[in-house]
Amino acid sequence: MFNSLSDRLTATFKNLRGKGRLTEADIDGTAREIRRALLDADVAVPVVREFIARIKARALGAEVSGALNPGQQVVKIVNEELVGILGGQTRELQLAKQPPTIIMLAGLQGAGKTTLAGKLANHLKSKGHAPLLVACDLQRPNAVKQLQVGGERAGVPVYAPHPGVSSEAEVPTGDPVAVARDGVGTAREKLHDVVIIDTAGRLGVDQELMAQAANIKAAVGAHETLFVIDAMIGQDAVNTAQAFNEGVDFTGVVLTKLDGDARGGAALSVAQVTGKPVMYASTGEGLKDFEVFHPDRMAKRILD
Ligand code: GDP
């Protein structure tokens, strides 16, 4: 229906010969288009505002090279800024010098943590690691069972408080911090080089939940804490990300449900307000619906 932002901007300037410098008038028109595209992609309003201000500051007076018309020049700047905010380069997990590397997942209930745990285990296994999954979501009925199913699919063992939970609706009891600690102990004993800890989420940000996640992180000394966020969350991305950043000081972000309609604006919102890189994307319910995140591809998805 609409052309991509890149096409629209380029068309706006088609008749100008690309020489000289970008003027205020050039930039105001394009800023309006960029604002609309970012809002359409569900980037949070304050993030859009800040982004536009940066683009304007950079574009005003920028020299238009012979090869590009002013529209193309602005598109180039927008693209560079998007990629920069999204973390520039793809960032992979930092492995601990002394194994096991301990990775903890945190996020709201329904964000896709348990699903992701299986995928991440599968991904790491395919790279030659020997991961152990640890089930510390003792809040959501079925979460332990779900992790066990995911582990089985990936061919990765799961450490769970009650390995024999039989009823799907049964909520295992126990202290998640103790389970995490025991899980890491088991990983050391059995020579797993990576531990992936699934934690409980709630429907909204909750102090008790945050304290629990922070306690698990401290108890096991997690090397990587991945904040898992649903790409469909839209404008709420900023508040949720800020709360988790303060609560657990995460090291990276995983964006889930990118197979849906979401354009991925949440990635930009989270990266901008926390300064943390997006590392992985989840694109479906299957084990293989998982990608290492590429900032340049996401910039394209947001702009197109
Ligand atoms: P948790 O509460 O954070 O552990 O969330 P779950 O892993 O249970 O996921 C919540 C729901 O979202 C489940 O029905 C999953 O199958 C689904 N889900 C998770 N990740 C994705 C994804 O990338 N795409 C789609 N379409 N569904 C997903």
Automatic annotation (TrEMBL):
Q: Where in the cell is it found?
A: Cytoplasm
So where does GTP get bound? Answer: 107-114, 198-202, 256-259
Q: Which GO terms describe its cellular component?
A: signal recognition particle
Signal peptide range in chain numbering: none
Q: Name one GO molecular function term.
A: GTPase activity
Main EC class the enzyme belongs to:
hydrolase
The chemistry this enzyme catalyses reads:
GTP + H2O = GDP + phosphate + H(+)
Q: Which residues form a coiled coil?
A: none
Question: What residue stretches are annotated with the SRP54-type proteins GTP-binding domain?
Answer: 277-290
Gene Ontology BP, a term: SRP-dependent cotranslational protein targeting to membrane
Looking at the keywords, is Hydrolase present? yes
What keywords tag this UniProt record? Cytoplasm, GTP-binding, Hydrolase, Nucleotide-binding, Ribonucleoprotein, RNA-binding, Signal recognition particle
The enzyme's E.C. designation: 3.6.5.4
Similarity field? Belongs to the GTP-binding SRP family. SRP54 subfamily.
Q: How does it assemble?
A: Part of the signal recognition particle protein translocation system, which is composed of SRP and FtsY.
Function as written in the Swiss-Prot or TrEMBL entry = Involved in targeting and insertion of nascent membrane proteins into the cytoplasmic membrane. Binds to the hydrophobic signal sequence of the ribosome-nascent chain (RNC) as it emerges from the ribosomes. The SRP-RNC complex is then targeted to the cytoplasmic membrane where it interacts with the SRP receptor FtsY.
Annotated domain remarks = Composed of three domains: the N-terminal N domain, which is responsible for interactions with the ribosome, the central G domain, which binds GTP, and the C-terminal M domain, which binds the RNA and the signal sequence of the RNC.
What is the protein name for this chain?
Signal recognition particle protein
Whole-protein coverage range: 1 to 304 of 533
